[in-house]
Amino acid sequence: ADPIKASIDPATQQMIARAQELGIDTVFDRAEAMKPCAIGATGICCKNCSMGPCRLPLPKGGIVGEDTRKGLCGATPNTIAARNFIRMIAGGASAHSDHGRSVAEVFMSAARKETDAYQIKDTQKLLAVAEALDVATTVEVDGETKARDMDEIALETAEKALNEWGKSEGELLYLKRAPKPRYELWKKMGVLPRNIDREIVEIMHRTHMGVDQDYRNLIKQGTRAALADGWGGSMLATDLQDIVFGTPSPIQSEANLGIMKEDHVNIIVHGHEPVLSEIVVAVAQSPEMLDYAKKKGAKGIQLGGICCTANEILQRHGIPTAATFLQQELAIITGACDAMVVDIQCIFQNLANVAKCFHTKLITTHPIAKMEQDNVIHIEFDEHHALDDAKKIVKMAIDNFENRKTEVMIPRHKAAQVAGFGVESIEYHLGGSFRGTFYTLNDNIINGRIRGVAGVVGCNNARTRHNEGHITVVKELIKNDVLVLTTGCNAIACAMEGLLTPEAAGVYCGPGLTEVCETVGIPPVLHLGSCVDNSRILLAATEVVKAGGLGNDLSDLPVAGSAPEWMSEKAISIGHYFVASGVYTVFGVGLPVEGAPVFQNYIFNEFEKLYGGMWDLEIDPIKHAHKMIAHIDKKRKALGI
Ligand code: BF8
Predict the structure, then answer these.
(1) For labeling, which of 94, 243, 410, 639 is most exposed (least CB within 10 Å)?
(2) Ligand 1: which of 98, 343, 345 to mutate, judged by most atoms within 8 Å of the beta carbon?
(3) Residue 452: beta bridge partners?
(4) Cα–ligand 1 centroid distance for 457 (angstroms)
(5) Is the ipTM of this complex over 0.85?
(6) Where does [Ni-4Fe-4S] cluster bind (predicted)?
(7) Which fold has domain 77-245?
């Protein structure tokens, strides 16, 4: 691959060239060598039974007259694309929600006081979550209302939370956190999720050969499962992590491969669940381990994160971000990565092959995510002996410092960032002291200084130039006075580009947004965390509705969503719960619905009439941003502002 064509980031370009010099292939090379299947990429390959795969390509020149394409069973392109689409939602929703379940289990052990490693850190958040889960926070004693014992609240909250995955009747309790008209709409549409696991299982059933054959009914189940992700599994993951690890608040740090240090032991944590990385952070910063590292000839221990683990430990501890999704192999190719510790999701299997060329210890830690290569070490992490596991891992990295064999080459590039935003800190910075929560933000939207708010999120994708879509879309939005909320790998890309600093306002923003950012001292792009933390965007938007003056429902707001470089099934689930929550959502790269025009039209256009939000696809990043701005303007006009 040509390094310049592969990425806009100089550190990445430098490291791709380095990999080539060393004869190591990376995702960028593999993307050139293997082209995607055009039929699969457009959503019209059905491999749900072994009479197929049935491939139904669009005829050259498009459909003329009736669309007669069908699979062996008669499945139409719409049925096939809808089935594939909601199976992606099932994959994504299960990834977020199973992560949430692990956190709920850790929260339960903390509530039961079964572990030394985890405690209840944020009792404020615990009380808020308890309330949302219908857990009493007060008791009546002799006719007097008193605060209920915190341990009791924690225990009951943990039980109620865990119940959300598999309760036998009722509906998800968090749905009522949405604005009332939104909840009522979901009810009317028949899409209120019953429990998290059930909606995912039902997708697998309905998409089995010969079950649901109506694309409208299929996507309805997709909507239910996606809502169970956004307003269920993901939101619970975020909330319970905040309770156990602390709610983030603005914090300074740095981003890009240049955060690694040649004279330090470099430990890279990569994946998604903060359950392990939180403890690794604590252990790596302990005097005992620092002394040990110094004894072994290192100046200290440098921690760095990749993917959403990076976002989690950045938000809560200011640990610098080493890399986006597509740079993961490059972190090892620096020759300075003494250990890479991975848990779940977004981890390349090829890391093991790259690690073989270096001294790097690649450590898997999760029982559901192992690798077949024999140079990979598996240290299974368990919340009941979390500290011992973390010590073992950190010590292994330190012991490995002296084994570096290839010449170290760490790119010098890194950028400063301010991260750690959330509903609470937006309220703090953009709230009003008298008029309640999000008043100042609403006021600035109404007076036009802020034209609207965009959630720009999601992955990198080797099918498009690394970070180019992310950065172009975000810069175009802030130039047009749209405040950006970011998560996931978009947040990392923005950090690497220097967009997560208050100073970026004066450089890249339109006059209105510059004024607001400079007055309150915030960056024009607010980092809200990992991909499960997209739930923070839902709740922030709900606070905006509550603060008044901008309509009664999420679909009334001048907001839009975007994932310019998406690749994962999780992104589809997120996109769909944004859409079903009333948000116009644009994806880049391509969507696996293009081969089924009727289904595509249904979720791109008809959906707006049903949910107020709809999907769109735009590969050109400037046009992509302007479609979002046009939607924001349409909503402003409808509000009369
Ligand atoms: O959950 S943005 S590449 S890291 S999937 Fe993966 Fe995509 Fe990055 Fe986090 Ni989200």
Answers:
(1) 639
(2) 345
(3) 482
(4) 9
(5) yes
(6) 272, 308, 346, 459, 489, 531
(7) Substrate Binding Domain Of Dnak; Chain:A; Domain 2 (1.20.1270)
